[in-house]
Amino acid sequence: MPDPSLRHLAEPFGPFSARLVPGRPVAVLCHSDCDGLAAGAVLAKALERAGHAVAVEVTGKGGSAWNPEVAPRLARHAPQALLVADLGCRSEPVLPGVPTAFVDHHRPDGVPPGAVLVTGYGTDPTPTSGQLAWECGELLADVADLDWVVAISVLSDLGDKAPFAVLTDVRKTHRITHLRDATALLNAARRSATGDATPALSLLMKAVGPKDVLSGGHPETDQLKAMKAEVAAAFAEAKKAGPRFARKTNVALVRVHSPCQVHPMVVPIWRTRLPRQIVMVANTGYLPGRVNFTMRTGTATNLIEFLKAHAPPDPGPNYGHGHDQATGGALAFDQWNRFVAGLGFGPEARVEES
């Protein structure tokens, strides 16, 4: 069952869900990592069980809920309402004119007028978006059987030592190795060169447990295995890169060049090796014309505030969102060059503009 200690966090969702009309479509937009996929799947299944027609969309490579192509994708479903899971929350609406609820555990950057925010930010320990979705889903229908999906969200974001009862409870009926392997397989989709997490979402929606995710009884499993092999090869290459150190700030920069999303995989390695540094791994090959970067630190530095203090003149919308000590962004080449110069890096950190 959902965690009683988190139940109060879902209270804003109650009045929102009470206004939904059965049979009319509800759109769900979720992030492409395992936490986002889990949150999206739980919300979609809860809505379906409550008698609603559901359209589920997942963000693509480098995707954000506020990217210009997202609103038309959602609008084609003519939804009566929109649920946005694990994608942050900003003051701008995702789909103007459509009642929206955000289910999220990142630091919010505002709430659109009239929207509802279900947040775990500021709670200690902070639950995942999947856990928050489980609490919201319980207000719609019985979703107790989706505990394994929620456990995957926790494993993906917080690891198997996370202090939440769902991990202990799920291990009574599912092997931890199956849960870990399913998490790794599902995460491979968004890390692949295409960044297409559609097969992962499809598999999570139809599987009845983590063993079913891995069994090969669904065609998506083979797709994800191929993606996982591609990412493993890219990660092995990216691990060879070494750090450079800024002269003005406490930042260590590791640069990689890969179409796969390996930068978040490399950063924990250097965070462990350089515990007194802010570690930033930048990928110049992930999206054309942009540098995608991930930052982590074991210091007391609030990374979101750090990025605000060192922002280039026009960083754009995909900069400095997420968690206080786990964040990142994407910058156009010219903005990246200004950014790293401001941090105290020399020409070695610049990217040549084409």
Protein described:
The chain is α/β, with parallel strands linked by helices and 354 residues long. It folds into two domains: 4-227, inorganic pyrophosphatase (n-terminal core) (Alpha-Beta Complex), CATH 3.90.1640; 243-349, Diaminopimelate Epimerase, Chain A, domain 1 (Roll). It is 38% helix and 17% strand. The protein contains 13 helices and eleven strands. The chain has helices at 13-18, 34-49, 70-75, 129-138, 147-158, 165-170, 176-191, 198-206, 210-214, 219-238, 263-273, 303-309, 333-343; strands at 25-30, 53-58, 81-85, 100-104, 116-119, 243-245, 251-256, 278-283, 290-297, 319-323, 326-332. The strands form two sheets. A six-stranded mixed β-sheet has the order 6-7-8-9-11-10, with helices on both faces. A five-stranded parallel β-sheet has the order 2-1-3-4-5. Strand 1, helix 2 and strand 2 form a beta-alpha-beta unit.
Features:
five-stranded parallel beta sheet; single chain; inorganic pyrophosphatase (n-terminal core); six-stranded mixed beta sheet; Diaminopimelate Epimerase, Chain A, domain 1
